[in-house]
Amino acid sequence: MFTLDSRAVKPGDTFVAVKGERVDGHDFIADAKARGAVRIIDGVEELQAAAREYRRELGAKVIAVTGSAGKTTVKEFLKTFLRCYGTEGNFNNHLGLPLTLLNAPRSSRYIVVEMGTNHPGEIAALCDIAEPDIGVIASIGTAHLEFFKTQRGIAEEKGVLFSRTKEFNVVAADCNELETLEKMSAARLFKVDTSSTRGLVCPLPGAHSRSNMMLAWTVAEELGVGLEEAAERLEKFALPGARWRKTKIGEVVYIDDSYNANPDSMKAAIDAFGGKVAVLGDMGELGPRSRELHREVLEYAYAKGLKVVTVGRQFALAELDLISSGEVLLKGSHAMNLSSLIDERKQTK
User: Fold this and answer.
1) Of 272, 266, 271, 274, whose CA–CA distance to 295 is shortest?
2) What architecture is the 245-347 domain classified under in CATH?
3) pTM confidence score
4) Strand partners, 300
5) Sign of the alpha-carbon torsion through 34, 92, 51, 19
6) How confident is the model over 209-258, as pLDDT tens digits?
7) What does the alpha-carbon distance between residue 120 and residue 105 come to, in Å, rounded to a whole number?
8) Which CATH superfamily is domain 44-234 in?
């Protein structure tokens, strides 16, 4: 087992010592050895080199999944259909992806890795490590606009995956910036009509969930999984973490889908939700269009008839933008600094 956390080390494990923003893993090498670590990997470069070398030793096909929204769901559907090892949680960056590869069993036939990005060049760096055979792009949306500027910029970053695969790529036929992705695909490209489930029953609500399932199913079918097998395996499907997790307290059912959010996943969740009250929290990394996109989500929720409770400054400003006349009361603790909302509102008028 390879781990960044010395507290998780067990006899025979490998401890990865990395210097982070708050903690330097090198300070815990002695602790890791005391717990039974037999190997120490020193730093990010050594970690990534070890992962690349191990990936080349394995006979497994590597399936890489990226996207503005839905990549974790697609990944979990793939793990279910293929009964294979893959990224745990959101281990999808320059540290998590190599750890995923290094912890893959040598007997693996398939390994599913999730690739996240919020800056140009990150998908290329992850492809250098994983050397993917198959690529899946779940969606092209507006997440991380702060760093990519335009939706095409996002597509060009995600599309690097399609330019680096060896066997085939999969994307929804109605995906945004499809033409950009088609041009970037170096391997066969499956453009999936995700409106048809071909008899599979999606265990999650919403059209976006059915789309994610069908992208994964297209890969699984191409790799030889039969429809009956897929249907049986779906019966045990479950998402990890705070993703559409239901909790009943008294007579109220809370649906926790708060793991992460961007404008596209917000709208998809609203579409899938059958209730009347939604608590919506601010979305990060949207750049200059942040206020506009928060307002767009609010308008979408109101159009669906939802009673909305917002949490965060960006949604508060978006709500004020939607008020065109009358009086508005701002009342709260001094620490909330609600007065500053008036100053920011003035700047847009």
Assistant:
1) 266
2) Alpha-Beta Complex (3.90)
3) 0.76
4) none
5) negative
6) 999 999 999 999 999 999 999 999 998 887 776 677 788 899 888 888 88
7) 31
8) Mur-like, catalytic domain (3.40.1190.10)
